[in-house]
Amino acid sequence: MDFKLTKSQVLQQELFRKFAETEIKPIAKDMDESEVYDQGLVAKLQKAGMFGIPYSREYGGQGADVLTYTLAMEEVSKVDASTGITLSVHTSLCCSCINEFGSEEQKQEFLRPLVDGTKVGCFGLTEPGAGTDASGVRTEALKDGDDYIINGTKIFTTNSGFADTFVVFALTDKSKGPKGMSAFVLDRTMPGITVGENIERMGIRAASNCEVAYENVRVPASRMLGKEGQGYKIAMTGLAGGRIGIGAQSVGIAQGAIDEAMKYVKERKQFGKTINKFQNTQFKLAECQTKVDAARLMVWRAATAKDNHENYAPLAAMCKLFGSEVANEVTRVCVQLLGGYGYCREYPVERAMRDAKITEIYEGTSEAMKMIISGAMKV
Asked: Contact 221/146 with Cβ under 8 angstroms?
């Protein structure tokens, strides 16, 4: 078993780190304060090929693997978790659904502009009454000739404030429950789509996260992904892969907090010496780094399993469960190490602590991850 990255992956990692430090970090605090994602940064992410990392060059992507994508997720999330989730939802959810279930024609029409840097995507599954229980979706898509008419409301749709392409899930036969759900690819410009204001949140405040209403939206049948009734499978497959990205985001948030704490403890003096000289500080940071390294290896394991077309879903659930717990624990420790300054918005560890919480919730709560893991164990 080889835990080393390839030379190509190391080079990519360095490029991702440089991009994060030079393009994202300088504006991350301002984006968080304004709660608006910088559209100039979106353009830079697109130009740098960040939105198409694990997708084939055949469709305009970078032709890299999932592991390389997790390296990007970690590096950007070290400095800004809002950028991490923007990248994750586009790549892991929207694009993956089209890539894995779309026809060749759909890939050329919808996937190519998403991965070549032309468009941004989002993923509409969650509803006001359907969160962890995705089978509770009430949005309907009723057949009307060669079209479907979609009516319903989605909430917490990340990227929806500026996304061009929406992958949306709706019931085409509500009598069948989850088996009556189907997936569609919609354009933002379609009549009947109304994107609400950004939802005010504790963390990832710069990310665009809105309620989206669909009122008599006419969608050609050619925009259905897969077959009628496959929507639930498509959504769950997308989310399984997405959890690898959230695991990587969690690692990035935690590692970024450690990096900031390390700089602080080497400068801050108390009782006549810098606080990194105290054994309590050393032991706390040692514990944090050990847990982050363990979480990172779990992410890499899940990513490698997906690259190898193995059963990665339980591994993805594990890396998200553990990684999100580590992110929350480590950011709390880092805030504590900075003392009163850690609680001030001047220092990025408080933002990391706020951002970390959501990793235990979105793309499957920690409780849902335990259900998946225990199910795979056949408990």
From this structure: yes
CA distance 264 to 252: 18
Return the axis-axis angle of helices 313-337 and 279-307, rounded to nearest 10°.
160
Of the candidates 75, 211, 350, 363, the residue annotated as catalytic is: 363
Summarised one tens digit per residue, pLDDT across range 295-310 is: 999 999 999 999 999 9
Task: Identify whether 58 is a catalytic site residue.
Answer: no
How many helices, marked H, and strands, marked E, lie in the chain? 13, 10
Distance CA(56)–CA(115), nearest Å, equals: 9
> SS3 breakdown of the chain: % helix, strand, coil, rounded to 5?
60, 15, 25
Among 281, 321, 285, 319, residue whose Cα is nearest residue 302: 319
Residue 133, pLDDT score: 86
Give the SS3 label for residue 49.
coil
pLDDT at 1: 64
Residues linked to residue 270 through DSSP beta bridges, in sequence order: 273
pTM for the full predicted model: 0.97
Q: 36 CB contacts (<8 Å, ≥6 apart)?
A: 198, 206
pLDDT-derived band at 379 (thresholds 50, 70, 90) equals: confident
* Range 222-228 average pLDDT: 97
Tokens of 356: 């970390």
The domains located in the chain, with CATH, are 7-120 (1.10.540.10), 122-231 (2.40.110.10), 236-377 (1.20.140.10)
Greatest CA separation for the chain: 79
Using the CB atoms, write b or e for 138-164: b if 16+ within 10 Å: ebbbeeeeebbbbbbbbbbbbbbbebb
Q: If you search the block for the tokens 């959501």, which residue do you land on?
A: 358
Sign of CA dihedral 206, 125, 150, 190: positive
Distance CA 302, CA 305 (A): 5
How far is Cα 376 from Cα 315, in angstroms, rounded to an integer?
A: 10
* Cross-strand bridge partners of residue 217: 150
The helix/strand/coil state of 5 is coil
